[in-house]
Amino acid sequence: MMSVSIPAHHQRGAIPLANIEPQMLDQAPKSASTSNLSRIFGNTGDNSQTVNEQTIALNKAMSIAEARRDDLRSFRNKWNITDRAAIYPESHILHFSILAALVLFEGMANAYFFSTGSDLGLLGGWLQAITVSFTNVIAAFFLIGFLGMRQLSNFHIGANMKQMGAGLLALAGIAITAFALFGLNLTAAHFRDLLELNSATLALGGSETTGTVLAPVLEARTNPFGFQTLEAMLLLILGVTFAIIAAYKGRTFDDVIPGYGGVTRRLVAASDALEAAIFSKKNGNLPEEKVEDALLLHAEICKDLAGPAKADESNGDTQESV
Fold first, then answer.
1. pLDDT above 50 (res 14)
2. Which of 118, 166, 168, 292 suits a disulfide with 124, CB 3.0-4.6 Å?
3. The pTM is what?
4. In which region does residue 43 sit, left (phi positive, over 0), alpha (psi from -120 to 50) or beta (all else)?
């Protein structure tokens, strides 16, 4: 039965229901809306506001998690991924730290090698060396490893023309960049060789060979491996080695399939948020059905993150239960 609030000036005597004015029923819709909210959010009472807030938070977490799960499944269907989950590092801090260490160490080594013939000494050698080392490491990391080698690893996914074209383009890019970086390190080694020879010539009272020193590219073209100092050979080996390490770190910076690591990480974040919403200390009064649905969704997401095979098993179990 609907409860009606009676104004104070009518409370002295009984009033027939027919004589109640429509204005007296203003509170009735509010009571009805409260009843509707009770059916939507579950138990209501003194803590109904807290329950409603937690239910809204859980609904939001579930909706986002379902959307991110669907994104991952759609991505796998698009790329025909049936054999594995995404492979990516938990954090990129180590990769960036290694890159910074490579640039710093190679720059310091090159600065020492270049400082012999530089008018500014160690400072001049550092300015020249840091430019060479930064270009060498960053180009190898990004162009060869992150872009080229990751694209080249996707030939086994499918044989369509778009993927084949991307693989061939990646192969050409790797070859061009590797040739350019080897030429850069070779030229830097010859530059170090010419600086040493110029310094020795000046020490013996000879004339300065400035023109020759300023033409290491020509020397690298005409006599690529004709080094006359051990330092020049060490400089070449050091630059090539650091470029290989940087390319490998670029290759392992994320999953070889572009975008696979990103869509997986977004699902992991949504799963963590869903887990936090499920096990919140304030969720004691939530409807059991809602919590069970959330737990079931979380279990399905865990299987999706484990790989396509586990996800297929989960879908099969769900269809059997239906």
1. no
2. 118
3. 0.73
4. beta
